[in-house]
Design brief:
By secondary structure, the protein is of the alpha+beta class. It contains five helices and 15 strands. This is Restriction endonuclease type IV Mrr domain-containing protein.
Length: about 230
């Protein structure tokens, strides 16, 4: 069980109890953000894409991921950024975790993610690397919930700081069923427990991405897709 951490609001000086959030690493282990107990919380006045994320290493596999910077909404109305002991930047030779694809492919060329559009571009590049073709962005994303279409594939990319929920998984699966295509989901903040369970039951591949733009599989269908490539490929 994660211990609560006292956080003092810099605006009203009131101390509140804060539970450090945990996110799922690609290896399956939970990564609890190491909140600094004696740190100096900051009042958040303006968000940028870069300051939404913090680099933290998984204690189980050592993989470095970028996770949503923890925030606390104080009763006084201030939004407080809670300090985290961030990991040093990963070097060029850092391991991306245990295991690897069985299919021979060239190295992945990641797309650094700075915006939501970059996240979609990174997902498209990765789908091409997996063996899907004719990737194109959706023209009706708000209606369909699909970000990318390709030959035999539909994909959704969730670039928000909240774990992807059950409804998004089911909507994407229905789109894939309608198109007779493989549905693939990419998320930057991981997946809610019920969303992960539903994706497993539907055999829908789930990937997480960090700001380096390199997706990692988080369930068995994603591992199979990496090993075997597209069903008709």
């Amino acid at each position: 069980m994660t211990d609560n951490v006292p956080v003092r609001c810099p605006a009203c000086r009131r101390e509140q109890s804060f539970t450090p959030p945990a996110f799922p690493c690609a290896c399956g282990a939970p990564v609890t953000l190491p909140v600094v107990r004696d740190g100096s919380p900051e009042e958040l006045g303006h968000r940028t894409w870069e300051n939404l994320w913090v680099a933290v290493n998984c204690p189980s596999c050592g993989r470095q991921g970028h996770w949503p910077q923890p925030e606390l909404g104080c009763d006084c109305g201030a939004l407080v950024r809670v300090p985290v002991a961030a990991a040093p930047p990963a070097g060029p030779g850092a391991s991306a975790g245990p295991g690897g694809p069985a299919v021979r492919r060239p190295a992945v060329r990641p797309v650094t993610i700075r915006t939501a559009r970059d996240a979609v571009t990174a997902a498209a590049q990765y789908l091409k690397w997996l063996g899907f073709h004719s990737l194109r962005p959706s023209e009706d994303r708000a209606v369909s919930g699909v970000d990318l279409y390709g030959t035999g594939v539909v994909a959704q990319v969730d670039p928000t700081t909240r774990p992807t929920g059950l409804r998004d998984i089911e909507c994407l699966w229905l789109n894939g069923l309608h198109k007779s295509a493989t549905s693939v989901f990419f998320s930057l903040a991981g997946y809610a427990r019920e969303a992960r369970a539903r994706a497993d039951a539907l055999h829908l591949p789930l990937f997480i991405m960090d700001l380096t733009g390199t997706p990692q599989p988080v369930n068995d269908p994603a591992d199979v897709l990496i090993r075997m490539g597209p069903p008709d490929g």
